[in-house]
Design goal:
Layout (H helix, E strand, L loop, with lengths): L1 H16 L5 E7 L4 E6 L10 E6 L2 E6 L3 E6 L2 E10 L19 E11 L5 E6 L2 E7 L5 E3 L3 E4 L5 E4 L1 H9 L18 H11 L11 E17 L8 E15 L8 E19 L4 E20 L6 E20 L2 H6 L8 E12 L3 E10 L5 E14 L1
Antiparallel strand pairs: 1-2, 1-5, 2-3, 3-4, 5-6, 6-7, 7-8, 8-9, 9-10, 11-12, 13-14, 13-20, 14-15, 15-16, 16-17, 17-18, 18-19, 19-20
Length: 386
């Protein structure tokens, strides 16, 4: 059984951190040839000098400088000529004192955020996003915005991008320049603005998602208590209900990452017989606790119908009942107090079917206290996502 728990934890950890990063997509090389297949992970914040591409012909390493356009999942990147200000920073300690912009030429990949008559792009460099739009001549124009600090250490915004949009990218909802007061220089605001300018009717879909999972399960709770004699651990088995709240960071990706908070009622009710000089001591243990976990959940190898996942989190074990009936003589020699808080962890693997039904096996481990040497639970669970 001990080896089973070790293997379970190793599988959970490996499953969380060692997942395939390939997503469906394509790339177009400098000659204009298009290749469709799967692309290895592309991060616009730190654009790679090479990536891996695989299709029915196998897996190939591709140099990024030989590509002019690529699509990774929902991410579409095009190599363009444009200008941007590399000196802009948004951290207070790194702000400069110049109101004007220091634009330089660049030829690099930009992310297409909104397509249409008015196109919106984003370029990331040194952690700073520069938004650009395509004018009637087909040129990319940076939307100008920066924060700068005066000699009196006052932070001021240069929001030139609002004037640019007012003059060049008309949006019927913005009937006067005063309407631009609340427009922010961020992806969500600008995406909405450009979609409306293109005449697109839409309702913004939230990337994040909060899911309530309700599990019914069969729990096997094992405890080893610090009696005077070295008695073997015992296991109490029973049915229980286990609620969980799951927060997905971005539900639109194929294999999302999320956080979960779960609570379980751990229950243990057993008798221990401890040998003593002329007669045995009988100990009746009735223990209950709430095991609360906060952790990370990772989906992998997902399809439309089947979504395997692994999870790992840290927990707090909160005793709500720690009753132990023992002979008076044993109290005098070894007073046992079970109502002690402790930390712990939870790990598990499971699968979500049809985006609703859940099957899971997980393992709870509470750290040793002064009177409990072992406190674990193996849970076999079925559930439903709301």
């Amino acid at each position: 059984m001990k080896n089973f728990f070790i293997i379970l934890n190793m599988f959970a950890c490996v499953s969380v951190f060692a997942q395939s990063k390939f997503e469906s997509g394509f790339y177009i090389d400098n000659s204009g040839t298009k290749f469709i297949g799967e692309i290895s992970e592309i991060n616009p914040n730190v654009f790679p000098s090479e990536f891996y591409f695989k299709n029915e012909n196998g897996e190939t390493k591709i140099q990024t400088n030989t590509v002019k356009e690529l699509k990774y999942g929902v991410l579409l990147l095009e190599k363009k000529q444009f200008k941007f200000d590399p000196t802009i920073r948004f951290e207070i300690q790194n702000l400069n004192s110049e109101r004007e912009f220091n634009l330089v030429n660049a030829y690099d990949f930009v992310e297409l955020l909104v397509d249409g008559d008015f196109k919106l792009y984003r370029y990331k460099k040194n952690g700073v996003s520069t938004f650009l739009y395509q004018n009637l001549n087909g040129d990319l124009v940076p939307l100008l915005y920066k924060k700068y600090v005066t000699q009196r250490t006052t932070i001021i915004e240069n929001s030139e991008f609002k004037k640019q949009l007012w003059r060049e990218v008309k949006n019927e909802k913005y009937t006067s320049f005063d309407r631009y007061t609340y427009l922010k220089y961020r992806a969500d605001d600008l995406e909405d603005y450009f979609k409306e300018a293109n005449g697109i009717s839409f309702k913004r879909e939230k990337k994040g998602q909060v899911i309530f999972n309700l599990y019914a399960g069969y729990s096997m709770h094992t405890m080893d208590i610090s009696f005077l004699s070295d008695l073997p651990a015992k296991t109490h088995q029973g049915l229980t209900i286990m609620p969980e709240i799951e927060c997905l960071y971005n539900r639109n990706v194929k294999n999302p990452v999320g956080f979960y908070v779960s609570a379980k009622l751990h229950s243990f009710k057993e008798n221990f017989v401890e040998p003593y000089e002329r007669y045995n001591w009988n100990h009746k243990v009735d223990y209950q606790s709430i095991f609360v976990t906060l952790g990370v959940k990772k989906y992998f190898m997902s399809t439309k119908k089947v979504q395997p996942f692994a999870k790992f989190g840290f927990a707090i074990n909160n005793p709500i009942k720690g009753k132990i009936e023992s002979p008076v003589d044993s109290w005098r020699l070894n007073l046992i107090v079970l109502e002690r808080y402790s930390g712990g962890f939870n790990s598990g693997v499971g699968v979500k079917l049809y985006n609703k039904f859940l099957l899971e096996v997980d393992y709870d481990f509470a750290f040793k206290t002064a009177y409990i040497d072992k406190n674990t639970a193996l849970n076999l669970k079925v559930g439903y996502s709301f």
